[in-house]
Amino acid sequence: MSIWKGDRIRLRSIEPSDWETFHALSEDTETARFYDKILIPTSKEKMKKWCEEMSCAPHDNDEIVLVIETLDGQMAGLMDIFDCDRRYGIFKYGIGIHKNFQRKGYASMAVRLLLRYYFFELRYQKVNVHIYSFNEPSIELHRRLGFVQEGCLRNMAFTKGGFHDELVFGLLRSEFEMLHHPKP
């Protein structure tokens, strides 16, 4: 049994061999827009080098990029954990699920696995996520998981010719524990 494995997915580090999937994803404009932003095209060599570097990168201050992988070995998405503040027990993450894997429960499984680790192994007490106002699937996901909208940062993202708000959602460890009954 692994803390990083659920009944349909596992969370794992990036491997050098993941470069082809990442390169293909970098060309998916709509997924990139939801996750963060549309980037300038990246060469295959640059993507290979990035995956190699990420596979060996230290996990400084609990910050890491994790692959969401189905149990049969398909990359379903990514999680980026960042802005980890051990003093206050707060961290942030972003999640992106590839088109063919959306609306199948992989994102909620990945979030629950991640939160169980950060709340019950690393002693974090709160998580925040920032979601663009046009990303309805992510807003719905986080509300279903018990996140509370705590704020709205106006005109924070520019895409498709217009500015969009960034919504801030938060979840406390105590709320997660009440809603999802994890066994620490």
Automatic annotation (TrEMBL):
Lineage top rank: taxon: Bacteria
A Pfam family that the UniProt record links to this protein: Acetyltransf_3
Domain N-acetyltransferase: 9-174
Keywords carried by this UniProt record: Transferase
SUPFAM superfamilies: Acyl-CoA N-acyltransferases (Nat)
GO terms of molecular function: acyltransferase activity, transferring groups other than amino-acyl groups
Protein name in the entry: Acetyl-transferase
Taxonomic source organism: Estrella lausannensis
